Each structure stands twice: as structure tokens, then as C-alpha cells.
Amino acid sequence: MTMSDHPTPVAGADRHDLHIRDLTVEFTKGDYTVRPLEHLDQTVPAGSLALLLGPSGCGKTTLLSCLAAILRPTSGTIAYGSTEITTLSGRPLTDYRRHGVGVVFQAFNLVPSMSAVENVTVPMRSAGMKHAQAKQRAIELLEQMGLGDRLDHLPSGLSGGQQQRVAIARAVALDPPVILADEPTAHLDYIQVEGVLRLIRGLTDGGRIVIVSTHDDRMLALADQIIEMRPDFVQSEDVAPRAVTVTAGQYLFRQGDPSDLIYVIDSGEIDVVRDTPDGEIPLASLGPGEHLGEMGPLFGLPRSASARAAVDTTLTGYTAATFRDLVGAERLPSLIRGR
Ligand SMILES: Nc1ncnc2c1ncn2[C@@H]1O[C@H](COP(=O)(O)OP(=O)(O)O)[C@@H](O)[C@H]1O
Ligand SMILES: [Mg+2]
Predict the structure, then answer these.
(1) What is the rounded CA–CA span in Å between residue 69 and residue 58?
(2) CA nearest to 265, candidates 305, 312, 326, 314
(3) Burial of 315: CB neighbours in 10 Å, binned 0-12, 13-18, 19+
(4) Which residues line ligand 1 (CB under 6 A)?
(5) How far apart are CA 266 and CA 313, in angstroms?
(6) Reduced to 3 DSSP states, what percent helix, strand and coil does the chain have, rounded to the nearest 5?
(7) Atom 7 (ligand 1): residue with closest C-alpha?
(8) Could you give the CA distance from residue 56 to residue 98 in angstroms, rounded to a whole number?
(9) DSSP state, 314?
């Protein structure tokens, strides 16, 4: 089956895996070249939530643009089932962009002069759906998103979290089998994020693939798969393990600090705590042989918690690259989710 056989060839119950093969994207500006994606290989199974993690500039938006068929890669392929996305053009390309993927942006991108319902009807109307039918579906979707009492509000009358839920309803309006979200929680406050994360997780029901770029470490626990994106130059530094001593009460690192090393405790005890506006929440108390602080260095995130010595403690600090060799790269996702 090719994209042109049916107007909505990949919608409905027909769910597939997504295959990214040897994907490279190169941008040339004058006489220098940026290569945010280099020989990327990934398979995202039907029904799973994949996270793109990595520091700013590592190619997350670039990859999502390729998956949305907005950007053509320099080389390599992306296939949804047997549909090769990277070579589509003309009508099949329009069909794919309309029915194959739904996109949720960081900045919501709602039409300011349209109500919540009208915003959600936009893709359905441009796909030729009758107004009454489109409106009915928009209302149902918004009710599912908990916005039944906000149907006629303009975006300016909605909170950030509510606007992002409207944007999610719009992205799923034509029931695409793939949803892409580019830092969907970046402009939301702490409380609003929870509802949006739950909705995003729920989008995988029925075999849909959801791919999300994020800096929010609360998404890690929800993900089926983590796609680690980092520019090569971050990895190249391979420093020898370093011995570190902290005395009782002293901080090894604080929440929000830039992340450098991953630590293994040699002797003593470290308390890991999260700082919240309401005070400190204890997360773990770790002893000899246990490791801590792996999330930040591995994914280019700031420290998500503080680590303080309960008693005089000695540790060994490893760079992300050395630590990866130590535990084996294939064990990392389960190791991190086990936290
Ligand atoms: N259209 C473009 N032209 C030139 N360089 C680009 C373009 N889009 C992205 N880049 C560069 O590619 C790299 C990756 O960008 P991006 O995918 O936006 O990263 P992220 O979303 O992870 O922050 C950056 O160095 C960026 O400057
Ligand atoms: Mg980006």
C-alpha cells in the first residue's frame, strides 16, 4: 500500500512501527557546516512514548521536523510501516502531513482570534470535513481534555496549560498514528505540567506513537524509550575518574546546578533531596556501592535534586562517557527508570 491509494492511509486501526535509519542532517552556513544529526538509527514501536533528550542545539527540533516531513534530511530514511516518509512529494506528502502526524509546539501556536473549539476544527476543516461534524468532534476532544467549560474561550482567556491542551486536541483531531511534541511543557508552570504530561502519555492508547522532546525530567518515568541526543563534542572529553570527599552536612551538588560528574559512593552516606517551595522532600539515602547524579550528565540536564553528605563520605566521580562504559550503555534506560 502506498500513501496515494487512500486519502487517510495510516489512520485508524492500522498502526505500525517507526524506523529511523542512518539519518543525517547537515546545515551549511557560508563556509562552516553544522551536523545536528549524524547516522541516527532508532526504531520506535507502535504504541510507545519516546523521549528526545539532550541539551539545546543537539538536534531535537531538527529530528522532529524530519519526522513531520517539514525538513528533508541530508541522507538516511524514515519509514512508518512500509511508508517511506523522506521521499514523499506532492499529494502523498500533503496526505502524510495532514493525516500521518500531529504536531504540538512549544509555544502552542493557536490562532488568537479563534475560540478553543474553532482552533481544534482547523485541521478537520482543511481536510474537507463538514463544519457541523468537525465542531462535534472538537467539542468531544476538548471535553476529553477536561476543557468542556472552556469551549468558547479565546486562547488569551486560557492558562498556558489549557492552551497546550487545546493544541493537543488539535493535533489528534484527525487521529494521526504519530504525534510529535516539541518541548510541550517548556512554557508551563509546575502545576500545569502534570495534567499535560498525563494527557501526552494517554495519547499512545490504541497503538499511537508519541515522540516528545523535553527538558522536563518528570517525563522520564513516563517514557518507554529514551533517545539520547547529544552533539559529538560533548562526548569526546574522556576524563579519568576523580576521588571526591564531602564532610557531614556538606553538599556534593545542589538542585539546578549544571551537571558534570556521576558519582559512586565508596564509603559513607549521601542524602538525595528535592527542594520545593514547601521545603525539602527526601528522595533517597544512598550508601557504599550505590551511584547518584546520572541523569544530568547523561542527558544534558541540570541537577534535578540536591545531594548532601549525611556523614563524612568519599566518592568516585565519573564523566558520562566513562560511566556509560562502566555499566554498559544498554542498561542505562532501565537503570534510570528504576530510580
Ligand atoms: N534551518 C537551519 N539552518 C541552519 N542551522 C540550523 C537550522 N536549524 C537548526 N540549525 C542548527 O542545528 C543545530 C540543532 O538545532 P535544533 O534542532 O534546533 O536543536 P534543539 O531543538 O535540540 O535545541 C543547532 O546548531 C542549530 O543552530
Ligand atoms: Mg528545539
Answers:
(1) 19
(2) 314
(3) buried
(4) 27, 29, 34, 36, 54, 56-62
(5) 8
(6) 35, 30, 40
(7) 27
(8) 28
(9) E
Phi, psi (5° rounding) for residue 187?
-100, 15
- % the chain with pLDDT above 90: 62
- Helices 116-126/131-144 angle, 10° precision: 130
Q: Indicate which residue's Cα is closest to atom 16 of ligand 1.
A: 59
Taking 60 as the threshold, does the pLDDT of residue 7 lie above it?
A: no
HEC readout, 110-129? CCCCCCHHHHHHHHHHHCCC
Residue 20 has pLDDT above 70, yes or no: yes
Instruction: Supply the DSSP symbol for 217.
Output: G
Q: At what angle do helices 160-172 and 116-126 cross, to 10 degrees?
A: 20
Kindly calculate the radius of gyration of the chain based on its CA atoms and give it in whole angstroms.
Answer: 22
Distances (CA, A) of 96 to 19, 68, 279: 16, 8, 48
Domains and CATH numbers, the chain: 3-232 (3.40.50.300), 237-337 (2.60.120.10)
Q: Do you know the residue count of the chain?
A: 339
Return the best residue to mutate from 34, 106, 227 for the ligand 1 pocket (most ligand atoms within 8 A of CB).
34
> Which ligand is closest to the CA of 229, given by its number?
1
C-alpha cell at 232: 559529538
Straight-line distance from the first to the last Cα atom of the chain, in angstroms, rounded to the nearest whole number: 43
Nearest to 177 by CA among 86, 91, 80, 72: 80
Q: Pull the grid cell for residue 205.
A: 492508547
Closest ligand 1 atom number to CA of residue 54: 22
Report the predicted TM-score, pTM, of the whole model to 2 decimal places. 0.71
So what's the pLDDT on residue 331? 58
Could you tell me the distance, in angstroms and rounded to a whole number, from the CA of residue 197 to the centre of ligand 2? 18
Residue nearest ligand 1's atom 10 by CA: 27
> Residue 173 corresponds to which cell in the numbers above?
483531531
CA–CA distance, 64 with 122 (Å, rounded to integer):
22
Q: What ligand 1 atom has the least distance to the C-alpha of 58? A: 22
